[in-house]
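ok, trying the design again with the full structure, not the truncated one.
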């Protein structure tokens, strides 16, 4: 039997996208999965969806951005798991798009509260029991955006980079107590996060970035054509079943190539490429003509 199989695992944001894929993968591997969602309706829908696949999941209602909700949910989960779960997968999150100057303070706080503060709060709630058992795992789902900053996604990137720093520190702090911490860094997958992000774009009429927002909205709404998120779920499974889990799991060829290119390319060249991709710069005419000739082949 692999390490941890049969043990209890909490997956936050389990109702859709990456969270649902993780829930299904772990449930079919034999874990006792407790998926958290934001309301009873979503809880019923999640249980029914997993039941239809021949597996089972328990649920808990949790708004990760609300401290009271976190305490209430994890108090309930402690009674469901004989004192506390063996592992937590912090997956819940969203992407706030927009130029740095266009995202107001309230939106910034919501982004950081959900993607950065909440995983740390949840770790604080589950670590005492893990430490007492001298066993447990915490898996934080980040993004390639935690390594590579992109224009028009500055606050999302900030939340994920902050999560990476906190996860690194947590990994070192908890290792002496038998708690193993890993980070998952996916590229882009079809999860609904980007389609939701399209609805969070700032009002382009009041922005200096009107053209970029129009283009960004089309890209975000077209994300349904991206591949499904099962590779992310497989990486989480590895982090939970490996005897010695890796500190980081980069998921997807796009994430790996982006990380390498951003690390080795001069900053000026990397900036230029990202600005070009987001419409902040226009390619010189000779480059445009060369690309057109390549596409015509």
């Amino acid at each position: 039997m692999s390490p941890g199989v049969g043990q209890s695992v909490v997956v936050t944001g389990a109702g859709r996208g990456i969270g649902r894929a993780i829930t299904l993968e772990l449930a079919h591997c034999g874990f006792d999965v407790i998926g958290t969602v934001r309301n009873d309706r979503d809880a019923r829908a999640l249980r029914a969806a997993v039941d239809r696949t021949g597996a089972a999941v328990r649920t808990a209602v949790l708004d990760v951005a609300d401290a009271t909700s976190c305490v209430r949910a994890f108090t309930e989960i402690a009674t469901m798991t004989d004192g506390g779960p063996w592992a937590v997968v912090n997956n819940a999150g969203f992407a706030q798009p927009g130029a740095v100057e266009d995202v107001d303070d309230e939106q910034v706080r919501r982004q950081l509260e959900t993607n950065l503060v909440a995983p740390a709060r949840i770790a604080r709630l589950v670590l005492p029991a893990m430490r007492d058992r001298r066993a447990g795992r915490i898996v934080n789902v980040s993004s390639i955006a935690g390594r590579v900053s992109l224009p028009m996604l500055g606050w999302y990137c900030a939340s994920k980079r902050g999560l990476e720093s906190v996860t690194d520190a947590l990994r070192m702090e908890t290792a002496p107590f038998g708690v193993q911490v890993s980070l998952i860094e996916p590229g882009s997958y079809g999860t609904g996060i980007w389609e939701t992000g399209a609805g969070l774009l700032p009002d382009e009429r009041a922005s200096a970035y009107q053209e970029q927002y129009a283009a960004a909205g089309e890209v975000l709404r077209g994300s349904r054509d991206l591949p499904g998120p099962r590779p992310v779920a497989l990486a989480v499974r590895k982090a939970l079943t490996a005897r010695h889990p890796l500190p980081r799991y980069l998921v997807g060829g796009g994430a790996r190539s982006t990380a390498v290119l951003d690390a080795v390319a001069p900053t000026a060249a990397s900036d230029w490429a990202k600005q070009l991709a987001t419409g902040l710069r226009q390619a010189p005419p000779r480059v445009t003509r060369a690309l057109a000739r390549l596409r015509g082949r």
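Keeping the full-length input from now on. Residues 94 and 193 are 6 Å apart (CA to CA).
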